[in-house]
């Protein structure tokens, strides 16, 4: 076993239509928080796992899309723990909170802002100091450097909002003072993974400027078009990172 142990990828919008995990075998994992759809790659010596966070609810079925505010994050993080996962790579589609980082840029944040209360614990065990795993972050950065990805930012703050709607222009003006990219999932995943003693870090693809940042109003059509445009870059990055995890 490598120093990363068993590895899982949690994907979102940027991997919704990816072919990267087509050969993975679907399985349902039961947890006390709900049943989860997990995909397993049985071709690797150390068996990578994949969860599509928007389609992980086994009660609803893999065809049902779950927006961020109704996703059962406790269930899919717990499912990965029950499968002996040690390292989690989060993959997220995000908006840019700064004009400096345009669409198509990959960001590996080193901090996050999130005032949502997401925890497994209602006692003193919840008093943890949250952070992305620096060990995993550095591996991600090394892998991206070796692929020659030009538009890569190796630090920054991820700001999480509740969703499912995008932010107003006024909200963006305020939130841009707090961080560099904005999303709806990764910070909560990081906290839950830490509570269950798993290393978690995230790679973010900027698929849009936050609403009003560069003038005009963000449209869903613009967002979806950029997700499609950047899909191949995300796939290449994820594959390179997985290869780096399993180097001996």
TrEMBL record:
GO (cellular component) term, any one: cytosol
Keywords, ordered alphabetically: Glycosyltransferase, Purine salvage, Transferase
Which InterPro entries does this UniProt record tie to the protein?
Answer: MTAP, Nucleoside_phosphorylase_d, Nucleoside_phosphorylase_sf
Checking Pfam families in the record gives:
PNP_UDP_1 (PF01048)
User: Where does the record place the Nucleoside phosphorylase domain?
Assistant: 51-242
Provide the GO MF annotations for this entry. S-methyl-5-thioadenosine phosphorylase activity
> Which SUPFAM superfamilies does the entry mention?
Purine and uridine phosphorylases (SSF53167)
Q: Name one GO biological process term.
A: purine ribonucleoside salvage
- PANTHER family the UniProt entry points to: S-METHYL-5'-THIOADENOSINE PHOSPHORYLASE
Name of this protein = Nucleoside phosphorylase domain-containing protein
């Amino acid at each position: 076993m490598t120093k990363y142990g068993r590895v899982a990828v949690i994907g979102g919008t940027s991997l919704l239509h990816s072919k990267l995990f087509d050969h993975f075998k679907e399985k349902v994992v039961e947890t006390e928080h709900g049943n989860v759809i997990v995909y397993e790659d049985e071709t690797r010596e150390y068996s990578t796992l994949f969860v599509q966070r928007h389609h992980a609810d086994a009660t609803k079925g893999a065809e049902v899309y779950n927006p961020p505010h109704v996703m059962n994050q406790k269930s899919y993080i717990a499912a990965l723990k029950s499968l002996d996962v040690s390292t989690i790579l989060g993959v997220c589609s995000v908006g840019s909170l700064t004009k400096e980082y345009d669409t198509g840029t990959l960001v590996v944040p080193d901090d996050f802002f999130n005032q949502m209360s997401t925890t497994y614990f209602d006692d003193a065990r919840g008093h943890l100091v949250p952070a992305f795993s620096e060990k995993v972050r550095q591996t991600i950065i090394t892998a991206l450097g070796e692929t020659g990805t030009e538009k890569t930012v190796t630090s920054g703050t991820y700001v999480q909002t509740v969703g499912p709607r995008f932010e107003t222009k006024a909200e963006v003006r305020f939130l841009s003072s707090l961080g560099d990219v904005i999303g709806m999932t990764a910070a909560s995943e990081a906290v839950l993974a830490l509570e269950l003693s798993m290393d978690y870090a995230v790679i973010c693809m900027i698929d849009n400027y936050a609403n009003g940042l560069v003038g005009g109003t963000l449209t869903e059509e613009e967002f979806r078009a950029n997700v499609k445009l950047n899909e191949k870059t995300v796939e290449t990055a994820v594959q390179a990172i997985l290869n780096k995890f399993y180097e001996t």
